[in-house]
């Protein structure tokens, strides 16, 4: 009777200490597991598996998790039940029953991230938790000229946070775009790839903004791939601007 | 050398216990006074006067305050100095030096409020603090037909929270509009008037939504003006959707 549920969720990361369960911290995984286990009468604890972690303050529009639920329930009832139990900063947007071979983390083909940069002179109080902030003038054409260097398979050793324990830093980026949202005075980046290293998107955004500001040559990514030196990429754009937009499966 | 400053501010009301100073609470007035007094070497405490209170959770796009500052400073320097001292959920958008006859509260001719209602089925986690939420279908044409009853001079006794100590409940509304923001799936109300009673906008919005849903007759405002009975207006729309948009002076 146990069935595997694939659940797509959106969350405001502001008040979460990231996705993954940590002692004494409010995390997305812990509030999900509390809701799921509240619905089950079984003694066995139901674990929720995410497609990957997100850091404290990072948001999701389409994070994917799975878990095995030991009672009869339709996908739609699961969506409604979870949304009645979850806190308001985390919502289920889609619920599906999937084969046991599905695994949120191990069967993914990639992810898409979005990054919002506010260009206001002072930080907009309504955006402080939902955008990065860069007040300097940015030539978006320079960033557009740099993005073809980002796409493809590269060694991203210069773009991985020092805390990462991953040895292999080669990743493939399928798609990288930038656009200006004039009405919001924002720059919006999107990156889709087969996987991302710890802080990779936030470091890439910081480098791209410096390219747009004219502080780095347009093709500085090619140099950074060569030097494999995190310190030369310097800045990390803040967590508040980052959104996990989509997780890809077959 | 003392000059009066008129300061227009925007704030995210989520983490404030309203505008007005209260013991042991974080309020807009208290963070403003802390910033202003940090800039002054005088022993005398500088008090900041607002155009009026906003409740806990209510936002401002254009709240106005004034204070007397005993040191030489340009309006522009005041704006920059305050923004470097204020927390990120409160920002100065405009700074002016005004005559001593200006008073943020006593010389105002009226105010404009905006109210955002999200119509999503479940609460959008990114809007939970920034909109009211009403999932039921609303016929906006019915609300448009009711709005002419709102405009004008009326006794709003049915639309004042029971906690109010104001005796005179007659107010004049200059302008009342509603529109649907399709891209955001929101209904946006705006009300301009010579003054508003405690919770008046939030109670009016709740009644207008019930008119739009077909739970009240279109001209129920006319009946509510007559009965002068708060209990018949029933609901109060949540603070999270309300924005003080503008304060009017000569």
TrEMBL record, chains A, B:
Keywords: Isomerase, tRNA processing
EC primary class: isomerase
Residue ranges of every copy of the Pseudouridine synthase I TruA alpha/beta domain listed in the record: 9-106, 150-250
Pfam families hit by this protein: PseudoU_synth_1
Stretch forming the signal peptide: none
Binding-site list for substrate: 113
Known catalytic reactions: uridine(38/39/40) in tRNA = pseudouridine(38/39/40) in tRNA
Residues annotated as transmembrane: none
Cross-referenced CDD domains: PseudoU_synth_EcTruA
Residues annotated as the enzyme's active site: 55
One GO term of the biological process aspect: tRNA pseudouridine synthesis
InterPro entries: PsdUridine_synth_cat_dom_sf (IPR020103), PsdUridine_synth_TruA (IPR001406), PsdUridine_synth_TruA_a/b_dom (IPR020097), PsdUridine_synth_TruA_C (IPR020095), TruA/RsuA/RluB/E/F_N (IPR020094)
EC number(s) stated in the UniProt entry for this protein: 5.4.99.12
GO molecular function, one term: RNA binding
Annotated family: Belongs to the tRNA pseudouridine synthase TruA family.
HAMAP family according to UniProt: TruA
NCBIfam families: hisT_truA
Subunit (UniProt): Homodimer.
Function recorded in the entry: Formation of pseudouridine at positions 38, 39 and 40 in the anticodon stem and loop of transfer RNAs.
Protein name: tRNA pseudouridine synthase A
Species this protein is from: Candidatus Ligilactobacillus excrementigallinarum
């Amino acid at each position: 009777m146990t069935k595997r549920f694939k659940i797509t969720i959106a969350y405001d990361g502001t008040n979460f200490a990231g996705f993954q369960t940590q002692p004494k911290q409010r995390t997305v995984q812990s509030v999900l597991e509390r809701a799921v286990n509240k619905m089950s009468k079984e003694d066995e604890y139901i674990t929720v598996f995410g497609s990957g972690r997100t850091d404290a303050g990072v948001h999701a529009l389409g994070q994917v998790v799975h878990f095995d639920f030991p009672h009869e329930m339709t996908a739609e009832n699961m969506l409604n039940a979870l949304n009645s139990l979850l806190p308001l900063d985390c919502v289920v947007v889609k619920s599906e029953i999937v084969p046991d071979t599905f695994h949120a983390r191990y069967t993914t083909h990639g992810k898409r991230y979005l990054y919002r940069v506010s260009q206001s002179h002072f930080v907009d109080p309504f955006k402080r938790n939902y955008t990065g902030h860069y007040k300097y003038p940015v030539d978006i054409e320079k960033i557009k000229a740099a993005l073809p260097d980002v796409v493809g398979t590269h060694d991203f050793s210069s773009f991985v946070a020092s805390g990462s324990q991953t040895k292999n830093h080669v990743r493939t980026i399928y798609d990288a775009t930038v656009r200006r949202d004039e009405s919001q005075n924002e720059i919006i980046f999107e990156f889709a790839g087969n996987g991302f290293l710890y802080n990779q998107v936030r470091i890439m955004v910081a480098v791209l903004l410096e390219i747009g500001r004219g502080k780095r040559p347009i093709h500085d990514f090619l140099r950074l791939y060569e030097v494999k030196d995190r310190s030369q990429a310097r800045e990390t754009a803040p967590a508040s601007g980052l959104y996990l937009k989509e997780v890809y499966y077959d």
